[in-house]
């Protein structure tokens, strides 16, 4: 995953379409310092669950990641800032709960953890599995998509971000 994140950083900075900090441009890196295991464990304790391994791997590479394209992709938050979506944007869950046809999405939103896109146009959500043997779900979520845009995992998402960057 680190190679993909590095390539996203280099490509976005080279294209020069978006403004980045001097430090990001000089380092050719849109990430930050890695999270510590203690910070990850503290977040897991706060949330009452064990985060998926690929997300923890991401955090050990970079504790947060600036979006290379703020109109299309969310920035990823520092581990200390992640939270359940129901605590950050309860109105969103309420809106989706009002429509019976969208109830399944609303239920997943109510369980989801927002790891990216706070105060942006779209969120990146991790949705814990209901049963122990099921997989986590990874969604980019925005009202203009409309709704959820699922990914097979975090690396799959970042590969899509890189592909989009290369095609623009």
TrEMBL record:
Residue span(s) of domain Knr4/Smi1-like: 34-167
Top-level taxon of origin: Bacteria
Alphabetical list of SUPFAM superfamilies matching this protein: SMI1/KNR4-like
Record-linked InterPro entries: Knr4/Smi1-like_dom, Knr4/Smi1-like_sf
Designated name of the protein: SMI1/KNR4 family protein
Source organism of this protein record: Pedobacter riviphilus
Organism placement in taxonomy: Bacteria, Pseudomonadati, Bacteroidota, Sphingobacteriia, Sphingobacteriales
